[in-house]
Amino acid sequence: MATVAGTAIALAMVPAGPALADNHESSEMERIGDHPNLNGVWQVMNSANWNVEPHSAGPNPLEAGDRLLGAIGAVPAGLGVVEGGEIPYNDQAQERLQYNRDNVITYDPEAACYLPGIPRATYMPHPFQIVQGDGDDILMVYEYASANRVINMEEVGIPPIDTWMGTSYGQWEGDTLVVTTLAQGPGLVKLPAGEMVQGVTWLDRAGNYLTNQATVTERFTLREGGNHIDYHVTIEDPSIYTQPWEMEMVLYRHVEDDAQLLEFKCVPFSERLLYGDLIEE
């Protein structure tokens, strides 16, 4: 069970619903009320979680990673999902960017099982599920760390506090679901060996990041046929970028009959990374 805004929600076995297999399905099956039916289990097929910018295949970034893991820990190549190919960091942001890159993978929030933030939760190597009703808020549930977020179907407001996943507001623009997420701020986070730093939301394993000043605008547009979503993201953060920038990718619906989210409660997998200095061997 997980709790969203004080309400218990069962996540483990929410049915994905029938796949929309071809263009011959009736229009009634493809829509919920006046809007496209986005229900289902979705996943990307790209390497954005390793690096949202274009990148070559490479060795494990950990020291001695190749010796310990061989090709298993290598980074796959990717064409990138950033429009224009490069994130427009300003000069002041370069210091934190280099700090992140000097400490991948060990300082990556994913390694510590911290919540991934938006948009990274969408393109991690784990599926996620959209739960949509008629006229209600929309729930997005993530396999990684049993994370979830509520898309508040209302005008964009002022979040009361910063949180790991921020606060998301949704509106329909025609057949496109537009989600604006604000106030993503992890605050102080514990790093290996007890170091505490001011956390930021990482966008990938390469150390790209955004701050709690960012406005993340996602656009979900269901393609004809119902099994693909065009996913477009705009990120604005004047504190670290010289201009807004965009990324886009395709989300693929799991169409197998038993499509569902499984458990990936990663806290036990991160304990030695975070507390290994306190464990007596």
Description of the molecule:
The protein has helices spanning 27-30, 65-69, 94-102, 120-123, 267-275, and strands at 2-4, 7-9, 31-32, 35-36, 40-43, 128-131, 138-142, 148-152, 167-173, 176-182, 188-190, 196-198, 201-202, 209-210, 215-222, 228-236, 245-253. With 281 residues, it is mainly beta. The strands form 5 sheets. Strands 5-6-7-8-9-10-15-16-17 form a 9-stranded mixed β-barrel. Strands 1-2 form a two-stranded antiparallel sheet. Strands 3-4 form a two-stranded antiparallel sheet. The longest helix has 9 residues, at 94-102. It is globular and about 55 Å long.
Short description:
This protein has 281 residues and is mainly beta. It has helices at residues 27-30, 65-69, 94-102, 120-123, 267-275, and strands spanning 2-4, 7-9, 31-32, 35-36, 40-43, 128-131, 138-142, 148-152, 167-173, 176-182, 188-190, 196-198, 201-202, 209-210, 215-222, 228-236, 245-253. It has 5 helices and 17 strands.
Ordered list of secondary-structure elements with their pairings:
Elements: E1 2-4, E2 7-9, H1 27-30, E3 31-32, E4 35-36, E5 40-43, H2 65-69, H3 94-102, H4 120-123, E6 128-131, E7 138-142, E8 148-152, E9 167-173, E10 176-182, E11 188-190, E12 196-198, E13 201-202, E14 209-210, E15 215-222, E16 228-236, E17 245-253, H5 267-275
Parallel strand pairs: 8-9
Antiparallel strand pairs: 1-2, 3-4, 5-6, 5-17, 6-7, 7-8, 9-10, 10-15, 11-12, 13-14, 15-16, 16-17
